[in-house]
Amino acid sequence: MSALEVNIDTFDELVIDQSHKRLVILDISAEWCGPCKILEPVITSVAQEFNASEFILTKIEAEDENMKIAGRYGVRGFPTVIAFINGKEVDRFHSAQTPDFVRDFIENNLDKR
């Protein structure tokens, strides 16, 4: 599963609305961010271990109008990864992480559904 690109116009439909059907993981990153470049292949690889009906991986570049989404969720650094269930944030982590950490993050949030 590759990450579904989200922007300010599609955020509510692809993140909030979808989170009522399945877990949505949102990766908020910036193009210039070193840790973001490290995390992206890790989170994408781990996401492929799961069934797409269980959760959806989304990604938003924190630039221009999209910064409003980062502001809405109090993001203070990149990357920030937020888990959404039923339209609400239920968990988050910051910075580059190991595959085991990302896998545990997804599994722990799937258990909350």
Description of the molecule:
The protein has helices spanning 11-17, 34-47, 67-72, 99-110; strands spanning 4-5, 23-29, 55-61, 80-85, 88-94. The protein has a five-stranded mixed beta sheet with strand order 1-3-2-4-5, with helices on both faces. The protein is an alpha/beta fold and 113 residues long. Helix content is 35%, strand content 26%. It is globular. The mean pLDDT is 95.
* Amino-to-carboxy terminus distance: 20 Å
What is the radius of gyration? Answer: 13 Å
Number of strand elements: 5
Tell me the strand percentage band: 25-35%
Helix-strand category: alpha/beta
Sheet with the most strands: spatial strand order: 1-3-2-4-5
Average pLDDT level:
95
Low-confidence stretches: none
User: What's the helix-strand series?
Assistant: EHEHEHEEH
Give the number of helices. Answer: 4
The percent range for helix content is 25-40%
- Summarize the main sheet: 5 strands, mixed
Characterize the overall form: globular
